[in-house]
Design a protein that fits this description.
Elements (H helix, E strand, L loop, with lengths): L3 E2 L26 E8 L3 E9 L10 H5 L2 E3 L2 E5 L5 E4 L1 H14 L7 H14 L11 E10 L11 E11 L10 E6 L16 H5 L2 H9 L4 E5 L7 E4 L2 E7 L2 E4 L10 H13 L3 E3 L4 H10 L2 E8 L3 E10 L2 E4 L6 H14 L10 E3 L2
Helix pairs in contact: 2-3
Bound molecules: pyridoxal-5'-phosphate (PLP).
């Protein structure tokens, strides 16, 4: 694919951030974005890298009414020697297509997805922060653009990629957070769209998140939609527990998002000397386990935080405290994964993808 490039005169480029360590998540955007259109009968066409800026939408555009939208979340990292890396980007390309299929949207060939990322990041190399823990967050997304109010898959789409340099997720230290179990609201049901990264899934969680925050917890621990018994995810991350010295994460049921961080943790666990199990785990087992001391750690796993330790879980008017500090496995998995991502540890699985 040939990507057209519309470049700005050097004087019109934005000034670079002053301190990458102080960049809040997702508020600063780089100079350029990638866009590509799709029309029925024509396929994907006009791939272009052009100045970052607003995109006009017809008020009748399908996405604004019926939400045909999917996205991805990835990062690129600059090593000490100035090399720019991505972590398992082909996995994101595959998942993007899984989401697109679920939303009845046209797939983007994996090679084109990767090429667009690489050409855009190469052009924007100066924006990739080098400071420890900071990275260039990458947001690929696709939306339906056809102006028509009938409920049906649209006949035109836009695929775009924007980039946002972001400081470390744990600016205040690797501290555990509190979770609130919602036993009335649910995130996703089997047969629904929980496995797809689509905006509607997130819109539906905001009310429960607000309730959790009002009660003094930072995230919601989601249970299954049918019985409200099985633990599924935390906020927009996958969840892990250490039970009897073993890592346990809910098995994929169709309503759980297939996290790449989750998959990577399962793959490295045996190397690190901990057995891992994918199985169903009930909220009762978690609460009982915290009480008896069988559950020694819990943490969320996702691209943004990598590993986010959990200190306590609020369930039905009781707060179950796991620990005030991050546990040893949370720490070890965080250090190992970020070590691989920043090119500091050997890449024995071939997960690291060199961009520049
Ligand atoms: C993106 C996401 C995850 C984590 O996926 P990663 O590939 O590890 O970033 C988990 N759960 C939900 C709901 C998500 O949106």
């Amino acid at each position: 694919m040939h990507i057209k490039k519309t470049l700005l005169p050097p004087d019109n480029l934005k000034p670079l951030y002053a301190d990458a360590l102080k960049l809040p998540f997702g508020r600063t955007f780089t100079d350029y974005m990638f866009t590509m259109e799709h029309h029925r009968g024509r396929g994907w066409h006009d791939p272009e890298i052009r100045p970052y800026g607003p995109i006009p939408f017809d008020p009748a555009a399908n996405v604004l009414h019926y939400g045909q939208e999917v996205f991805e979340g990835m990062k690129s990292y600059k090593t000490d020697t100035g090399v720019v890396l991505m972590f398992r980007p082909r996995e994101n390309a595959k998942r993007f297509n899984l989401s697109l299929r679920r939303l009845s949207m046209p797939e983007v060939p994996e090679e084109h997805f990767l090429q667009a990322l690489c050409e855009l990041i190469r052009l924007e190399e100066r924006w990739v922060p080098q400071a420890v823990g900071s990275s260039l967050y990458i947001r690929p997304a696709a939306v339906s653009t056809e102006a028509a109010l009938g409920v049906k898959p649209a006949e035109s789409y836009l695929f775009f990629i924007i980039l946002s340099p972001s400081g470390p997720y744990f600016a205040e230290g690797f501290n555990p957070v509190g979770l609130w179990v919602s036993d009335s609201y649910t995130r996703a049901a089997v047969g629904g769209t929980g496995e797809a990264k689509t905006g509607g899934n997130y819109a539906g969680t905001l009310l429960a998140s607000k309730i959790a925050k009002d009660r003094g917890f930072s995230q919601v621990l989601w249970l299954d939609a049918l019985e409200h018994r099985y633990v599924e995810e935390v906020g927009a991350m996958n969840i892990f527990f250490v039970v009897d010295g073993k890592l346990v994460t809910p098995k994929l049921t169709g309503s759980i998002l297939q996290g790449i961080t989750r998959k990577s943790i399962l793959q490295i666990s045996s190397d690190l000397g901990i057995a891992a199990e994918e199985r169903s785990i009930t909220i009762d087992e978690v609460v009982e386990g915290i009480r008896s001391g069988k559950v020694t750690e819990a943490f969320g796993a996702g691209t943004a935080a990598v590993v986010s330790p959990v200190g306590k879980i609020g369930y039905r008017d009781e707060v179950h405290v796991i620990s005030e500090k991050a546990g040893p496995w949370s720490r070890k998995l965080f250090d190992t994964l970020t070590g691989i991502q920043y090119g500091k540890l050997p890449d024995k699985y071939g997960w690291v993808y060199r961009v520049v």
